[in-house]
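for the writeup, i need someone to sanity check this before i put it in the appendix. the sequnce is what the collaborator sent (i think, or maybe the updated version? ugh). structure was predicted straight from it, no edits. if anything looks off just tell me and ill rerun, i have time this weekend
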Amino acid sequence: MPCEHAGPQELMEMAERHLEGVPREQWRGRRFRWSENVSGGMWASVTLEIERRNDNWIVTRLDRSQDPLNESECGFTELA
């Protein structure tokens, strides 16, 4: 069953677009988050995080919640 929210592949694509122009050897250790409120499903919100380890993106967090997020918490973010 497909999810009604952005998944790991979509977040990886967002991260790679964000990193356009940055040499790949500088991608290692970079972390990104996508959070969104979802309507019509069993979850009110979803947060997904990835990290670049060596030459791969690794999902480090998938949090589905019955509570919605504040709008300021939603969207794409590069983590420190």
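The first strand starts at residue 31 and ends at 37. The CA atoms of residues 16 and 49 lie 14 Å apart.
thx in advance!!
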